[in-house]
Specification:
Strand content: under 5%
Number of helices: 3
Radius of gyration: 27 Å
Helix content: over 70%
Structural class: mainly alpha
Amino acid sequence: MKFDMGSTTLSTLGKSTSGSSDDLGALIQQLIAAAQPLEGKFNGEGKAMFDAFKANADDITAALNGSLSSILGGQSGMDTAFGTGDAEQSDNAQQNMGAANFDAARFSG
């Protein structure tokens, strides 16, 4: 299995996720505003569910943004881990090359 990823992939993804969090909150507020004309048109369970959604919209937004924040934290952690692993791999390669005896591998006399 081959895993090939650019060095900026996760940081770029993190920036996109951060913007999505802001967009999500705005979209939920737009949904509430769009549903406003329907207020008072429901009865029974439909009214109860509509009222519950409207009353809990801020909590729903906070929960979704909290989830996105956790995703962003995971992406940041992965970015740090990949960056550290890349640097360690380079350091190890340089250290091993410095210790190698390339003259011993020459076949000319």
